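Exercise 7b. Backbone tokens:
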């Protein structure tokens, strides 16, 4: 933590390996559970400020069809999009948290 001078520029991504490019997506509950634990780790090991400001994004078969529900989770701050970023539906994923 002491080696990072600006936590505002740090983005943490959670990507379950079984979800990358497979069409299998973590459920919103699964993603929330992991993101919440990552944020709790930051709170314990770094600071409240960092825990509250670091963006924790989810990656793994995000689509227009599942992005709204995933984005509705408290600790899901955005997405790391692979395959769907090459399709027109990408705009819907970009706007999922708008
Ligand atoms: O680089 C992107 C991530 O590995 C997720 O890829 P995906 O959205 O095709 O599963």
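Sequence design result:
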């Amino acid at each position: 933590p002491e080696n990072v001078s600006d936590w505002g520029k740090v983005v943490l991504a959670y990507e379950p390996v079984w979800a990358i490019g497979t069409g299998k997506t973590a459920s919103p509950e699964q993603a929330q559970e992991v993101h919440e634990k990552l944020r709790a780790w930051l709170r314990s090991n770094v600071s409240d400020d960092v825990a509250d400001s670091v963006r924790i994004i989810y990656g793994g078969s995000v689509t227009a069809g599942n992005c709204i529900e995933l984005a509705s989770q408290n600790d899901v701050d955005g997405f790391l999009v692979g395959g769907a970023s090459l399709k027109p539906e990408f705009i819907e994923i970009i706007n999922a948290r708008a």
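Instructor comment: The chain has one domain: 11-95. Residues 15, 20-21, 59-62, 80-84 surround glyceraldehyde-3-phosphate (CB under 6 Å).
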